[in-house]
Here is the input.
Amino acid sequence: MAENIAAINTTVEKTNRILAEIEREMGWQERPDQALSALRVVLHTLRDRLPVNEAANLGAQLPELIRGVYYEGWEPSRVPVKMSREEFLEAIRRRFIYAREAEFDLEQMVNVVLETVTLHMDHGEVEKIKASLPKAIAALIPG
Here is the structure.
């Protein structure tokens, strides 16, 4: 029982650190809900662009709470969705519920989310994910 509680506490701490870093980097300390929304839409759009195996490998690298957000609504039979870099960014803008009310740079937001998430991942897995994407989209993933 104690180990289950420790595992839950660990994933909550990791998730809070990731969200706090996104908030700080984007200047959203007063709006933490924006960080969660940004994380969700960037990960969902990336997940839907990846081949199923790479999407699953990415999901396996995420803290459990973020993994739940990541898999929410996923339909593996409908991926990968082919899109250009511009279409990828536009899909994120469309899905980001704060796009109209928040001042933000879209590419900065994508970069911050992906950099923050990939810092907590195995470097080899990040490289595999990048290799499975078109170069223009892979370039959005730091590292």
Observations:
- The radius of gyration is 15 Å.
